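INTERNAL AUDIT FORM
Audit reference: QA-55
Scope: verify that the stored structure record matches its stored sequence.
Auditor: D.O.
Record contents follow.
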Amino acid sequence: MKKLTFLVAFALLSNMAFSIGLLTNTNQSAQFIRMMSRNASLDIDAVYYNPAGLTKLENGWHFAINNQTIFQTKPVDSKFPLLNDGYYEGDVFVPIFPTGFAVYKKDKWAFSFGFGPNGGGGTVTFDRGLPSFEIPISLAAASLAGLGVTGYDTDLQFDGSSLFWGIQLGATYKINDIFSVYGGVKYMPAKNTYQGTIENIQFKVGTEMVDAPDFLNQYAAVAQAGADMPETLQPLVDGGGGAYTLAQLEGAGFIDATQRAGIEGGLKLMGIPQENIDAMDLNNVQGAYVVASPVFQGQADELTAGAKKLGDQEVDVEQTGAGFTPILGLNISPNENINIGLRYEHKTYLTLTNSTKADLDDPLFPDGGEVNSNVPGILGIGIGYTDNDWFEVQLSYNMAFDKGVDWGNNIRSGAHREIENNSYDIGLGVQYNISKKFSISAGGIYNDYGIADSYQSDFSWINSSVAIGGGIMWKLTDQLVLDAGVVTVFYQDSEVTFVDPDLQTPYQETYGKENLSFAVGLSYSIFK
């Protein structure tokens, strides 16, 4: 019987809606949501997107707070032939996804602070679990067809949450009217939580559903009786019954009909025909059981272990850790209409430590165990053009150095998860100023992830996408600005082929996503 394994996703929630590479969220401001391209920003959200451009702000204090509400579904369609129903759907609802920025600008210097969920930021719930949970149960049922098992049922549930905060501090210096530079560091405290259960596993036997552990334990008892039969029969042999058949022993009252049926049942399991059993004396019977006893013992042990694996199981784990990310930036303003922003975030070395309340008998998350969760380095480039009155356009490019991180093994296939090319995205955003106080904007972004099929599984999958967003900017006063936007993301389904080691037949699984997000932000300045 295939070992029943309860596995948990390390990256299931790593990228919520938009990401640079496989881990880092790019949706860090309402301005981004309404425009989809901000790498050349000279507004307060430049703290994240273009920190070297902050010296373009007016002298004084500048503050911003943003929130996004995110709706996401994560469907999985498995064609594994033994599943009752191969469709699973994870639901994500994130009512609060906050980001904030603060800047103090004084002449050639700007000192900045920012925070936001740089990775994760929500909880995904799979009410029916995932194929990785259910496939071993379906295989267990199929392996017991010889015992009359024709189906199965179970209750599966999994919740996973992930939150990697980015808390950023830095300073910007204006070298001259063309160049300014930035140096900073991001502190990234991280926490993942995983809670899941496999409960009430049942087998269909005939027309009834029976408790799976009880069913296996009953047959384990039969196999154990066969393993113990040489010792059970020894007193009868010692008492002089070795030359008698089972019928003769029953007729003489040494065994009853139930005991005879049990002894004959074990002989039948060895493949001995009934006519041969009828002719065997007790010495022959005991000899057959001596030979078969190790086999029966192995079956009893396997069935007992299987019953334990098919019992209710739970995982309750919290993983925590923190890392630091050095950040460098350069802003180039060749003239008053064109601005170029560059940002490089170094690879973040991050180790998560398990705090385990519940785990399997074969622990997946030993308490105090450590998990490598490094975040790839990022290069961001943006160019913006404005006529200073009515029109602004920005083009952004990001590359994540995913090939510089070890992504471990695929939990389904066991193969090492490969990255063929570093991920990148390209965004284009346009803003039109209807008046000096009110603007509308729109934009789009294309994400391409250079992952191999070996990366994908139902616990961690990535889909290339196109996102379209739009919104407004409203200057309520000279100091107070409202930004609001909405975006929808169109994901490309990913289809992966697996070969089950038990069935030795290929089957497909399709992984998708659907996403809708709303954002609102307020910016306030105290000019000096």
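Auditor finding: record pair retrieved intact. The helical segments are 30-35, 46-49, 131-143, 212-241, 246-251, 257-269, 274-279, 282-309.
Action required: none
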